[in-house]
Amino acid sequence: MPVPTVSLPTSAAPLQQVADPKDAALRQAAIDLEASFLSEMLKAAGLGKAPEAFGGGSGEDQFASLLVNEQARAMAESGGIGLAESIYNSLKDSQE
Description:
Elements: H1 21-44, H2 57-77, H3 83-95
């Protein structure tokens, strides 16, 4: 079965690197905020919850939240849903 190719919308393209350290800090703050948002959305959607039949106890619950946080961070750093770019642009505009 062939795997279909998936293209990201332009708003979800990976964020461009910036030369100015102040802009880099703003961009990182925007990525961190989007990662936190995505993490909460993934948790609300039930990602990381063990099925009833294969429950691994409290240790599994603790490590599952770490996995969800890292998945959200990876999503945000690769473009996410475009929220970081909007936040970055707003922060940049507010500084000017």
